[in-house]
Structures are given as structure tokens and as C-alpha cells.
């Protein structure tokens, strides 16, 4: 009877063991084939410049690392970007990428810095890659629905910017595309002076969401037809606009005026008919010959310094038309400019052609800060030709004093009372000076708003601006995006933590560009925002660690520096370790155990803890089985104990 009972218990134990083994191997199967636990980006790994604006149907995000990178993949290059999308990591529990984005997006642009001729010409050898995806809903591209993923070393993602829609619902179309074309053309004829020369050059269907465009709080997904209308008659005023017609109601929801107030050059005077083209000798018209010379210099500068073939980067025509007196100048953003004969200076020509550089790179949207950035970068591209930060006025005088904005009543910071709210026509020339002023401070140096900025020189700052414009900024950018782009551009060219990049950041902080809220297109002063005292950068980060040492140095801190350790005499990074030497009198113990003379701190990412947790879990399960068979301990309590230990290791 007794041996029978023992046999019964043994069979029962074997059943329990079988259940446990099934659970273990089932867990392993799920872990291996699903990629393991849910992907997570820890908030503590992100810098203060990161932001996530989560609304009911949209998410606008900008993720920047506190140090190093924010996410590491197993795949490399484009596959790494796709793996990030598929993993869809959460930040603080929030999704930043919609479900199935890998199936509902299109790769629209990719850039490999290792093959960039501009970087090679400056002996900058970096292997960063930049991938830009456009979201689609039911196969229709979302206008401005972009996800930018930036990575280095093949699989270290160090910056992510997204403006994405989480609501997949679309309205039922009631207006035909032909009707939408007619609606747009009628509106264009009302706006244009020479309506008989207008033509529809192109149409595209989009999902249009005002929220991700930073225009309004409206998160509705409108299905629109974007109708591109141009005036091709060279003898009439430039006209180049996009009209977004709602295919449900027929209303025009949005308009973009592409006319902004390859050595292939053509300059013509409409009054006397004189024209000068590429390699042609002077024609004897002062304005024609001057503009030809300036455009020639413009091409040479960008080709020699950035290996860029013309303003549009593809050898396109650089065309200028001189009109009768009218006190105006304009660019259509694709290579054509026109100037009234009473409105011609070198600065104006370079500014208008600078719009083509901007339009063929980031092509900022027509919004308060989008338009301001368009004007700011156009002003920046005036500088290399006369080497000053002043926009000349036709007939003499100063139009904009970029290095001293207050002298002419322009804003010198984001919270300036001179900022023009509302995005009215012309305000972009005023508000754009805040950003161009920040760039001038980088070049010239100075003390602003409590920050001391060391000059990095005109040449360096123009390289950084070009890298930011062509690699990081997108059409929906605002000033906060420009802040991150300039910092990333500097890190690419001069290394994160360098004095050069500290000066770049100091100038941006001094002008309060870092205080621009994410997902908005106007200064916070327009909506009652509170100005904060700038926190000027005073420390230099030592890559690749999270340790920061002051310039003297006098202190060292970990992460966000909750506690400082006084008195380091040196800090030397080696791989994922940093060795810090201290005077023998210092023996702090609040953060780490430190030898009084030399301390070595392991600053590895801790990613192996998850693998250790899994291995520990399996070992615990095996220990339970052995222990249970040996002495009959209660399996359930042992199993719970194992789970607790596993979770503790997994999320350590």
C-alpha cells in the first residue's frame, strides 16, 4: 500500500514537471520568435531636448540621446531602420510609431554620409545614415506624415523625428479629381495678375491632417487633391502655388506659395531685351552683368565647398529676370528669380537664390516658423559673399541687422516682444532673424542673455548650417527641430562634446530657440508661454560615456548629475570604460565605490542584464525541478519565486 502511494506521487510529480517544461519551452519559443520583450526606450536615456506630443489621433516626437544612442538593432543600415519600425519601441509607455507602419509607409529619401562629397572634402569621416519614411493610409501618402531615423555605425539609432497619424479613418470622397482641379484653377485665377497664362502642372492625392502640419488642433484626416499651378510665361510675373482641395467638401484647406520673397545661368532684362547666358561675355548692361557675376559666384561657392551642382543640387538653370521698377524681388524655389531694376543688390540676389537651396533641401512649409526658417537660411547664404551679417537695402542702408537685431527693432530671441505673432505675410522676414542671429553668434561669439559664446568662425558655422539643412531638417520643422538639427550637424562635423559644439548650443540657448514647444509653429510668447532663464552649457561630455567633466576640470557627475564628485584631475574614456583620477584626499562614496587615487567606472549600457535575466530564469526553473524531485517542495510557490527573480533581473 505504501509503495503504491509512492508510485502515485511520483507520477503526479512527473505531470507537474511536464507542465513546467512545456511552459518553459513555450516561453522560449515566444521570446525567440517574437523578438523577446516589448521594445522600450528608457526616458532616462533621452536628453532634455527630446519631446513627445501625444494627442488623440496624432503623435509628434523628437528623440535625442543623453549620450551615445537611444536604440540598437541587430540589423544594419536600412534594415536597422526597418527593424526599429517593426519593433515599435515605446517611450514611457507611449507608442511613437503606429501599428503596421512597416506596411503603411514609403521610403522617400536615404542619405549615406560615408559617400557625401562635402564631408569627404573636409576630411570628416563619419558613417551616419539617414532614412526618411512617408506614412500612408489606405495607400494614400500622408502630407508631412514623416518619420526620420538617423543611425551611426550601422545599427546605433541616435535620433528619431516623427509626425505621424494613429487614426486610419478616411472620409468618403464626393468631389471628383476633375472638379477639384477646376476649383483650384479658379482660385489661382483670382490670385494671379495674368490668369490667362496659368496651367496645372501636377496633381497628387494626399491624406491631410492639420495637426501634424502644426497649423491647427484639428486632427481630422482629410482626403485632398494637391493641385500644382504655375505660370510658364517668362514675360509675366512668377506664379507657383499648390492648392489642397478637400475631396469631400470641395473646400480649399491649404495653400502653399512656392514663390519666395549645374552651372546653367541666364540673366535677362525685360526692358531692353538684353540677355546673358552661361560662358557668354559681358553684354554692357550693368544690372545684367552684375547679376550674372553674382550667380556665377553663388554656383562656385556651393560646388567648391559642398560639391553641390547648382542651387537645386542637380545642375538646374539659374535664371534671373530684371523687371521695370516695382521695389520687389522673388524666387520660385526651383531656380528662377526676378528682381525689379530698382531692387537689385548682391545680398538680394544671393538671398533669393538661397531660397532655392532651402527649397530643394528641407523645403519648409508655409507656417509661422516654417516660413521664418526659409528666410533665415536664405539670409545665412548671403554671408559667404560679403562676409558680414547684414542684409543691405537697395539704394543704401541696412534692411536687416542680423548680428544686432534690436538695432532695427527685430527680435533677438524667441520671447522677444518684437516677435510678430499670427504668421502674417512679411512676419517671416522679422521672426527668421531669431534663428539667423543665433547662427551669427556662433560665428562671431559674444555674450547674450547670460551665455558666453566663443566664436567658431564663419566657415565652420556655414558647414554646420548646411549639414543641418540637408541631413536633419524636414518640411514641417519648427525652431525646436532647428535646434536639434544644428546640434546634430555640429556633432557630425566636430564631435559631440567639443568646444565648437558647446558654442553652437550656447548660441541656440541664448536666443531661447530650445524653448520652442514641439508641434507648434509660433513663438510661445504668442500663447502666453513663460520665458525661462537660459541654462547655458558649461560642461563637455566625454564620449562615449555619460560622464561630464567641467573645462577646468573641477567636478564629475553621472547621467543627469544628481550628485557631483569634486576634484577629478583627469578623465580618460576607453571603449565603454572611463578612468577618472582623483586627489588622494577625495574618497566619495555617495554614487560609487571609488579608490582614493584612481577609479574605473563601468559605463556599459546594461543591455546584457536582459540576457542574464533569461539565463537566470532557466537556471531557476531547472533548480526548481531538481529540488522538487529531491525533497517534494511545493512547485507553485517555487515557480512564483522563479518568476519574481526573473522579472527582477529582466527590468534591472
Account of the 3D structure:
- There is one protein chain.
- With 652 residues, the protein is of the alpha+beta class.
- The protein has five domains: 2-36 and 608-650; 40-165, no CATH class; 177-257, no CATH class; 265-527, Neutral Protease Domain 2 (Neutral Protease, domain 2), CATH 1.10.390.10; 540-602, no CATH class.
- It is 33% helix and 23% strand.
- It is built from 14 helices and 30 strands.
- The strands form eight sheets. Strands 2, 3, 4, 7, 8, 9 and 10 form a seven-stranded antiparallel sheet that branches. Strands 16-15-17-19-18 form a five-stranded mixed sheet, with helices on one face. A four-stranded antiparallel sheet has the order 11-12-13-14, with helices on one face.
- A hairpin with a 5-residue loop joins strand 15 (265-269) and strand 16.
- The longest helix is centred in the first third of the chain and has 33 residues, at 2-34.
- The radius of gyration is 30 Å and the shape is globular.
- Mean pLDDT is 82; it is low at 1-9, 32-37 and 539-610.
Amino acid at each position: 500500500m505504501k509503495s503504491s502511494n509512492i508510485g502515485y506521487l511520483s507520477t503526479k510529480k512527473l505531470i507537474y514537471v511536464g507542465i513546467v517544461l512545456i511552459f518553459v519551452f513555450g516561453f522560449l519559443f515566444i521570446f525567440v520568435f517574437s523578438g523577446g520583450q516589448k521594445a522600450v526606450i528608457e526616458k532616462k536615456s533621452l536628453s532634455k531636448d527630446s519631446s513627445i506630443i501625444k494627442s488623440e489621433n496624432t503623435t509628434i516626437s523628437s528623440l535625442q540621446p543623453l549620450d551615445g544612442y537611444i536604440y540598437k538593432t541587430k540589423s544594419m543600415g536600412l534594415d536597422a531602420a526597418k527593424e526599429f519600425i517593426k519593433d515599435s519601441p515605446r517611450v514611457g509607455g507611449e507608442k511613437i510609431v503606429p501599428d503596421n507602419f512597416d506596411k503603411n509607409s514609403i521610403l522617400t529619401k536615404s542619405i549615406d554620409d560615408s559617400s557625401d562629397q562635402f564631408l569627404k572634402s573636409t576630411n570628416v569621416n563619419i558613417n551616419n545614415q539617414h532614412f526618411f519614411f512617408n506614412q500612408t493610409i489606405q495607400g494614400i501618402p500622408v502630407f508631412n506624415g514623416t518619420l526620420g531615423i538617423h543611425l551611426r555605425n550601422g545599427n546605433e539609432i541616435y535620433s528619431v523625428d516623427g509626425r505621424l497619424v494613429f487614426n486610419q479613418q478616411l472620409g468618403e470622397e464626393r468631389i471628383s479629381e476633375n472638379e477639384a482641379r477646376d476649383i483650384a484653377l479658379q482660385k489661382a485665377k483670382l490670385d494671379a495678375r495674368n490668369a490667362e497664362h496659368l496651367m496645372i502642372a501636377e496633381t497628387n492625392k494626399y491624406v491631410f491632417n492639420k495637426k501634424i502640419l502644426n497649423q491647427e488642433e484639428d486632427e481630422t484626416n482629410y482626403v485632398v487633391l494637391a493641385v500644382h499651378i504655375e505660370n510658364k510665361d517668362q514675360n509675366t510675373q512668377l506664379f507657383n502655388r499648390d492648392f489642397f482641395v478637400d475631396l469631400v467638401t470641395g473646400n480649399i484647406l491649404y495653400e502653399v506659395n512656392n514663390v519666395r520673397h549645374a552651372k546653367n545661368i541666364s540673366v535677362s532684362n525685360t526692358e531692353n531685351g538684353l540677355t546673358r547666358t552661361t560662358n557668354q561675355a559681358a553684354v554692357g548692361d550693368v544690372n545684367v552683368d552684375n547679376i550674372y557675376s553674382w550667380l556665377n559666384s553663388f554656383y562656385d561657392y556651393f560646388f567648391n565647398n559642398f560639391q553641390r551642382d547648382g542651387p537645386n543640387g542637380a545642375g538646374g538653370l539659374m535664371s534671373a529676370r530684371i523687371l521695370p521698377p516695382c521695389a520687389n524681388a522673388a524666387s520660385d524655389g526651383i531656380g528662377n528669380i526676378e528682381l525689379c531694376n530698382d531692387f537689385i543688390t548682391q545680398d538680394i540676389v544671393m538671398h533669393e537664390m538661397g531660397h532655392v537651396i532651402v527649397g530643394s533641401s528641407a523645403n519648409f512649409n508655409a507656417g509661422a516658423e516654417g516660413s521664418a526658417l526659409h528666410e533665415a537660411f536664405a539670409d545665412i547664404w548671403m554671408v559667404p559673399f560679403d562676409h558680414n551679417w547684414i542684409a543691405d537695402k537697395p539704394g543704401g542702408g541696412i534692411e536687416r541687422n542680423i548680428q544686432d537685431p534690436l538695432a532695427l527693432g527685430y527680435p533677438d530671441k524667441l520671447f522677444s516682444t518684437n516677435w510678430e505673432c499670427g504668421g502674417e505675410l512679411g512676419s517671416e522676414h522679422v521672426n527668421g532673424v531669431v534663428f539667423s542671429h543665433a547662427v551669427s553668434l556662433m560665428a562671431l561669439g559674444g555674450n547674450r542673455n547670460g551665455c558666453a559664446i566663443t566664436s567658431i568662425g564663419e566657415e565652420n558655422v556655414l558647414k554646420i548650417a548646411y549639414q543641418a539643412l540637408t541631413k536633419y531638417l524636414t518640411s514641417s520643422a519648427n525652431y525646436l527641430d532647428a535646434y536639434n538639427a544644428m546640434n546634430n550637424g555640429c556633432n557630425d562635423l566636430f564631435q559631440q562634446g567639443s568646444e565648437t559644439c558647446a558654442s553652437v548650443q550656447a548660441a541656440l540657448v541664448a536666443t531661447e530657440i530650445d524653448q520652442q514647444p514641439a508641434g507648434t509653429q509660433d513663438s510661445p510668447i504668442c500663447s502666453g508661454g513663460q520665458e525661462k532663464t537660459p541654462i547655458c552649457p558649461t560642461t563637455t561630455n566625454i564620449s562615449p560615456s555619460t560622464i561630464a567633466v567641467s573645462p577646468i576640470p573641477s567636478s564629475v557627475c553621472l547621467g543627469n548629475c544628481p550628485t557631483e564628485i569634486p576634484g577629478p584631475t583627469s578623465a580618460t574614456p576607453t571603449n565603454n570604460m572611463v578612468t577618472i583620477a582623483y586627489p588622494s584626499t577625495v574618497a566619495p562614496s555617495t554614487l560609487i565605490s571609488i579608490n582614493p587615487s584612481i577609479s574605473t567606472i563601468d559605463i556599459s549600457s546594461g543591455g546584457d542584464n536582459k540576457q542574464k535575466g533569461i539565463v537566470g530564469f532557466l537556471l531557476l526553473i531547472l533548480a526548481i525541478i531538481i529540488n522538487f524531485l529531491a525533497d517534494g517542495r511545493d512547485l507553485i510557490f517555487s515557480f512564483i519565486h522563479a518568476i519574481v527573480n526573473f522579472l527582477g533581473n529582466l527590468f534591472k
